[in-house]
Amino acid sequence: MIHRNRKSVFFPYLTKKFLYAYPYFQINFLHFNLFLFIVILVFNVFKFRLSLFSIRRSFHLIPCCCGPVMNSICSLLTNFLNYKLFNKLLYLFEPRKSSLKHH
């Protein structure tokens, strides 16, 4: 019963947290992306150290390590741009929320 209703309970809870606690979310949005970036970086370094033992040819190591790292750097830069767009989306939801309170 819990497993069946998990989606219907969990996703409105997430949207409610984003809409009602968005000043707290604005502070921690970029911090979460930096934390994700560090986790991806550490994972790629660990994968790079493992591939030193497993892969014989050295030119396989460069795309193995640098590709996901560059991808995470690009996603971090796009998240800085999408942060302003996300704020505009939150302000679009704001009149609907206040109109529900008045009715």
Describe the structure.
By secondary structure, the chain is mainly α. It has one domain (6-102). Helix content is 87%, strand content 0%. The chain is elongated. Keywords: Membrane, Transmembrane, Transmembrane helix. The chain crosses the membrane at residues 20-46, 58-81.
The gist of it:
The chain is mainly α.
Structural class computed from helices and strand pairing: mainly alpha
The average pLDDT value, as a whole number, equals 58
- Give the CA-based shape: elongated
Number of domains: 1
User: H/E order of the elements?
Assistant: HHH
Largest sheet data: none
Radius of gyration: 20 Å
| Spans of at least 5 consecutive residues with low confidence | 1-10
Assembly classification: single chain
Helix content: over 70%
Number of helices: 3
Number of strands: 0
Keywords: Membrane, Transmembrane, Transmembrane helix
